[in-house]
Amino acid sequence: MQRFIRRGWWKPWNWSTRTWVLVIFVVPLISPLVTRWLCFWQVPDVALPFDVNDVIRPQLAADQDAFVRYASAVMFAGRQSVPWADDAMKQAVDMSDPAWDDRLDQWLIDNSRALAEYREAGEMEQAGGPSLKTADITAVLTLHNDFGKLANLAVTEAIRRERSGDLEGAWQMHQANLNCARHAEKPGFAICSLIGNAIRSVACQGIKRWAEDPALTADRLQVARSDVSAAFSKRISLADVAKVEYVTLRNTFQRHDAPNQMYPQWHMGGSIEPPLLFGKRFLLWSVGQPELTLRLARQLLLNHADQIDTPRRLRRKMILVKDQAAYELDPSTRRKWGQLEPAALIRAYDAIVSTQQTRNLLISSGNEVDLSRQRDDARQAALDVVLASQQYHRIHSEFPACIEQLVPQFLDSVPIDPMDDLGAPLHYRRETDGTAVVWSVGPDGIDDDGRVELNNKDIGYRIRLKPLRQTESP
Q1: Are residues 108 and 78 in contact, defined by beta-carbon separation less than 8 angstroms?
Q2: Domain final residue, candidates 215, 236, 257
Q3: Which of 4, 97, 242, 300 has the least C-beta neighbours within 10 A?
């Protein structure tokens, strides 16, 4: 060492030509390896907390796949498409009976084949979707884009049947929407979960309106409550959604054009694309991608595994940054080897996920799907109170003065607000005009005094009874 220092070999200007040539050739070769190691050092690898083979479902035969029948419903509905129908349906669903467009009566009758296919599809037990062996972020979910139209069509048909006094026929349409929401979620993608929640929102609004008919008995309303509860109990868990999203993320990164999925703004096309893709792949490899994103996804899965399906009020403390969350670790449970602390996990996420496209790849473990499910929970809890209050009205000729009056005859206990961090009960108030309102505080956690119809500040429903039905023509 003293000889090395004395000769000054550590000074670059004393290097020989051979040494300089060696440095010029060796440094570029080892630099990618060094940077790759430094990047991997940010996020330790952890074992995948589930078996991929348990997530991949076998393909269904066409006669067992509800999606085949839904596709038929879309086809038949498309044959009856008219320009004014969408606006007329929107008015019928969003407003009261006076907004009904009489043209809808015949148009809905013409759509009876589509509605029959829709209802029969909902009664099927299984629904398929893209195979998770190969499905990736580009998986085509064309049919899911039409589910909203079918759901609105079914609600409008339910209103038509209610107007003619066919309450059981109307309930079949609402039941079809609940079944469709269940099927829409079956593929397991995050977007499928969001679509399923959106369809349930339409179904709940329709059921709330259906329950306002004074011809319904308390016993019939109890059956409806049981059906709604059973439908919500069949929802796919958010933990399973996260598993499916990881599998699709892994499949995406196995594509030959995976770099374009992570950084599409670099995509140029033409004859320059192959060498550009090779260079992009090499640059990403030198910074640990896409393996680094997969490591991050596994860390998020491990962090969320025991919390994502837990009620909000029972979850451990959460750190939220932008669109991602991490939960404090359970001190009574031994931490997995390599598992990051929540603060370190969030820092790694913020540093690694540098583009909106990459952030979208990790949506399932983010906040959007979680909040959508919490809204779904709030709607279910509020709708259960609506139906129980309507039962109470059939017996006592008025809505309860407070929610406690529903316990224990109609409710086992006062329902908890799913969106309240402290576990407060749902809010309920009987108005001076005899109607009532039930609501959750909503995603912002602020009680807006039951303003459920004003920019959706709170999540809930107005509870009222329709006037006695006049004789109406179908």
Answers
A1: no
A2: 236
A3: 4
What are the pLDDT tens digits along the chain (474 aa)?
455 445 556 566 666 777 767 777 777 777 888 888 888 888 999 999 899 988 888 888 989 999 999 999 999 998 888 999 989 998 888 776 667 889 999 999 999 999 999 999 999 999 988 888 888 877 878 888 899 999 999 999 999 999 999 999 999 999 999 999 999 999 999 899 999 999 999 999 999 999 999 999 999 999 999 999 999 999 999 999 999 999 998 998 888 878 877 766 555 666 777 777 888 888 888 888 889 989 999 999 999 988 999 998 999 998 876 667 889 998 888 888 899 999 898 888 888 876 545 656 665 445 788 999 999 999 999 999 999 999 999 999 999 999 999 999 999 999 999 999 899 999 999 999 999 999 999 888 888 888 887 566 789 999 999 887 654 444
Domain range spanning residue 7?
2-42
Is the overall model pTM greater than 0.85, yes or no? yes
Helices (H) and strands (E) in the chain, counts: 18, 5
Residue carrying structure tokens 């048909």: 157
Bridge partners, residue 461, by sequence = 438
Q: Which helix (H) or strand (E) holds 450?
A: none
**The total number of structural domains that make up the chain:** 4
Distance CA 339, CA 141 (A): 34
Indicate whether 132 belongs to any domain: no
Which pair of structure tokens corresponds to residue 384? 């259960």
Same domain for 201 and 81: yes
Query: Do 438 and 333 fall within a single domain?
Result: no
Q: Which of 301, 289, 352 is nearest to 322 (CA)?
A: 352
Q: Of 220, 236, 252, which residue sits at a domain end?
A: 236
Residue 420 within any structural domain of the chain: yes
What is the C-alpha separation between 349 and 270, in angstroms, rounded?
34
Q: Where are the beta strands (DSSP E) in 41-144?
A: none
- Residue 132 has φ and ψ, to the nearest 5°, of -75, -5
Residue with tokens 């009874």: 465
> Alpha helix locations (H) across 257-355?
258-262, 273-286, 291-304, 342-352
Tokens of 264: 């599409």
Supply 267's token pair: 């995509």
Residue 290 in domain: yes
Query: Would you say residue 432 lies in a domain?
Result: yes
